[in-house]
Amino acid sequence: MLFRITAAFERVTDITTQFLAENGVKGLILDLDNTLTTHDNPVPAEGVLDWLDCMKKSGIRLMIVSNNHAPRVTPFAEMLGLPFVSEGAKPLTKGFKEAVKKMGLTKDDVAAVGDQIYTDVLGANLFRIKMLYVKPIEHEKTTFFKVKRKCEKPFLPKEFIKNKQSIA
């Protein structure tokens, strides 16, 4: 199934190390815009830095895969201390394949995390890895994204996991 979602979360910081361990996930391929921060924002969303620190301390390997160009991705990834793939060509498997190789893991050990059905979810399924869907941090204002989000509605999950515990 092309739009299968392994689990859906309110936000990226609701993904716990316990959930990852229970699902055999040792590495996360992270989308950038509307997953870790809002579009074109150089600052991570609230709680993301603490969440990343928790993931790193737990031994979870992390890598950003974004369709954005390097001038957008590079400073953000460097600020977070994360490796990255820019121009990942999602939903094609190029960026996912490169990330798994760089992380030194197998596809069975990895999950993708993102907010878009036609790039993140479709790409994860084409590459045959687990997909952790997160709600977009904010809704985009452009006509393109408004239309795209409307077309995504039939494929959106109905239930979301929300972590009620503190990340720290």
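^ that was protein a. below is b, sequence first then the tokens
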Amino acid sequence: MLNPLTPAFEARLRDLLPASAIKADTAPYLIEPRGRWQGQGFVVAPGSTADVAAVVRACAAARVAVVPYGGGTGLVGGQLMAEGPAPVILSLERMNRIREVYPTENVLVCDAGVILADVQKAAEAVGRLFPLSLASEGSARIGGLLSTNAGGVNVLRYGNARAQCLGLEVVRPDGTIWNGLTRLRKDNTGYDLRNLMIGAEGTLGVITGAALKLAPRPAGVGAAMMAVASPRAALELLALAGEQIGEAVSAFEIIHRQGFDFLAEVGPQIKQPFAEIPEWCVLIDVGLPAGLAPDAALEALFAAGAECGLVTDGVIAQSHAQRQDLWTIRESIPEANRRIGSISSHDIAVPLSAIPVFIDEGAKVLARIGAFRINCFGHLGDGNLHYNVFPMPGRTRADHAADRALVKQAVHDLVHAMDGSVSAEHGIGRLKTDDLEAYGDPAKLAMLRSIKDALDPLGIMNPGAVLRDQD
């Protein structure tokens, strides 16, 4: 049983930490981006791994919950507790040092509180690339990105956060420090603790540092948006791109017309790439070595796609600014979604070949519940779709309060039936614990619980996230 915060315990933390580590204004840490939950807790921001360890040791001794906090950008409630005894919210924001960069090794070592965009800049300064890229990169922090095994737009080429990490430094639930900041690419000395901590969402310890893999910077980059006849045509174009361009395809995003309609309806304002918006289109990004022209590669892909009847129209960026304009469209769609207000949003993945069937069947399943607008877009290259359901014009999501659970279950049931995942890249948090129980393999759930009980026997680390709190 967890214990509540007391004035005496808060005073203990004030004694352990400098005054700058105690956050007087706690409001920013107690709300998640979509405003669905209101958190609670005493917020501290240690400046070193030793200070993090001291806080966790104190919490373990008092049996007070610890909620690690990165950039607060998570969408599944993993960064706050709305119920139970108020926790200590442990923000990594002051741990924001780039510790070391090893260009010849393609490795960067940093604190867990470093913002993703700052890691990208540090890599660029030595002529390298840190390819993890997502809409919140200006505020998301490395510890949170690793804790949720974040994906983003470049997974097709570079993999998700797990694939871009070599080693970790972690404060364990008893306050001891695991120094696993290896820069090795081969190390078969026992269980892979790094991969155990990545994706654990702070339930097994606090990530305080990371050794990250860098990549060579492509000599030339380019982008194109191409209208396709259907999701199936998009998949065939993806295969064709793999044949013609190979691993130089960094991202391959699918976008439905509904996303453009939402942008026209509520903004943000964008430069329309087509005279007539197609029902479906794809955004392709490539990065090629010296001597190869990205625009020529994309032009050849367009010609081949058109000859096969896969592509009906297209825009190929002729400059960096035009490339950015195309990406602005993709990156603005989530904001337009927010302004419309979804009834139910889904971060799902299905096997690539099942995507066209899922899209067709999803529309049919939802039509049995009611009339909705569906905005389906996302990372076609790795099978991760953002499948969001909205009210019809003139109605609001409040009008569909009774439908939300039905919509969510219908979509997730279909995903599960197609051997997919109801959480592709956002994690489980507290939002999807019921889904994990409903769709998770019983043996997997038992193993997850055994790991949690073994590493965090007091149950203080982010209780209620991923696995339902058994207290």
